[in-house]
Amino acid sequence: MEAERLGDKKAMRALSGIAPTEGRYPSDKAMMTQRNYLSRFGGGNYKERHGMFRSLLIPLLKSDEYSLGDVVRYAKGALYLSKTLWNGVVALHLGDTINKLSVPVIITQGDHDYNTPTSIVEAWFKTLEAPYKKWISFHESAHSPIAEESEKWGREVESALGEALASV
């Protein structure tokens, strides 16, 4: 969709024929291609649009907290988890299975998130019963408002936690 809007023929070719069926991709490679372009076109990070390598791995490599070995293990772990858990995750339809929780629920959602689209999350959230629930929108974020709007995220979550504790 975004590739078409931008007239990016390379992206359109790469994405051709790999649309997931109910969240399942034809192959791991197809999923990684889709996720790479999703990141590049702003669905992962809204402000800084890069492919997965630049948006995920470069920050880890630049961090003082991770060694090169840690980054390699992170990448291997992420690939392993995708292979191991993906089908179970996409098979879980929250709206059909989880309509009530006995704990407070706080959703922090970037308006431009195409990993977990707002329309899907919001539909579930509206039907959810919980002792306390709060939806917090981030207008300048995609999938990672904690990184893209970190100060606002911290203030909003701290406030919501205070409200949740006061309500239970």
Give your account of this protein's structure.
The protein has a two-stranded parallel ribbon with strand order 1-2. The protein contains 9 helices and 2 strands; from the N terminus they run H-H-H-H-H-H-E-H-E-H-H. The chain is globular and about 50 Å long. It is 57% helix and 7% strand. The protein folds into 2 domains: 90 residues, no CATH class; 74 residues, no CATH class. The mean pLDDT is 88. It is mainly alpha-helical and 168 residues long. Strand 1, helix 7 and strand 2 form a beta-alpha-beta unit.
Low-confidence stretches: none
- Global structural class: mainly alpha
**How many H/I helical runs?**
9
**Strand order within the widest beta sheet:** 1-2
User: Major β-sheet, in short?
Assistant: 2 strands, parallel
Strand percent estimate: 5-15%
Count of distinct structural domains:
2
Order of H and E elements: HHHHHHEHEHH
Globular, elongated, flat, extended or rod-shaped: what is the shape? globular
Q: How far apart, in Å, are the first and last alpha carbons?
A: 44 Å
Rg calc: 18 Å
What do the pLDDT scores average to? Answer: 88
> What is the number of beta strands?
2
Task: Summarize the amount of helix as a percent range.
Answer: 55-70%
